[in-house]
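Example 368, ligand zinc ion.
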Amino acid sequence: MDITDIKAENIKKILTVLRFSSGLTKRDLASIVGLSFSTVSNLCNELKDCQVLYEEKSSDYSVGRTPNRLIFRCEKFCSICADLQEENLLHLAVLDFSNRQLFQHTYDISGFTHVEQLITQISNVYQSLRSDPAFREVQFIGIGVSVPAIYDQRTRRVVNATSPLFNDTPLRDLLSHRLQLPCYVDNEANLCALSMRQSHTDSDNILYLHSSAGLGVGVVCDGKILRGSNGYAAEIAHIPLGDPEIRCPFCHSYGCIENDLSQRGMDIFHFPGLSPDERQRLLEDRGRKLGELISILVNLFDPSVLYVGGSGLVEYPSLAPYVEQVLRARSAMIMERGLPIVHDTDSLQTIEQGIIQVTYEKWDPLAL
Ligand SMILES: [Zn+2]
């Protein structure tokens, strides 16, 4: 690590502590991040010169001189968050570095036949926001896209997508070129896991099982998101735990678990005329399969918390008793330690916060 990397790392340590605080003195900052007062002071002065931080004068004169507090101007920096988890829909949002949502809209893209139409739609919204007076003081730092697919780090293409619109396309390079912004593309479950990692800094092992158009798991393992050598790690869609009679439309094998546990496998709960008995049998079937999948995942990764979310798992509270029954049988040691299984009822917000987290981590505040 050279001196520039060390400086960048120290700056991020300072900003990360300030990001969700109401401001801290240089002395408090130095003690929290474990750097000398002079290092913290010099770096903060540079960040003030770049308008990233400002100093709030203390108004408390009752107990002598109180040092000024440094405050991170989180509201000045934002990212576009594009979410493609639901078939035929594009969710676009803009969040600032304090996770505040500045804009949100959903677009029907069912008529799109080429990825260029998607790029143009996102670019048009970006251009209109940039000319909006409400965004005059805001800097766009990047764009992040959540896909029910894998981003292949080697070929820079989106692969294994359930939608042909962006499958096998260089989505990241296309967007980055058109918007002239750094772009980040990742699987929705990875973004959810990254988002939860940011809010659980004390936990190094987190799983997020996400179900929508696809079925995926994001794994934070020993503090890092698990990716593998190509970015394909923790791909669970084609594990043969599903109905052995159903042929998978993607890999053409039989019994892929994604067919049972993604949105298309859960839509059956909304079929008109479903009798209470049929509903009960289906709940038991899906709950048992979900339990078997989760038992494999928790046995492999031993997480301290497991999240389930996405439009395909809105029924989770009704599935939970069957899931827990399987887990008690197959993952007894982990369950005896009290593994919390948390139903995330707003996974879209979680994805957006994951995108903001990645944009923030990749941002170089001194390169403005
Ligand atoms: Zn398959």
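Summary: Residues 290 and 323 are 6 Å apart (CA to CA).
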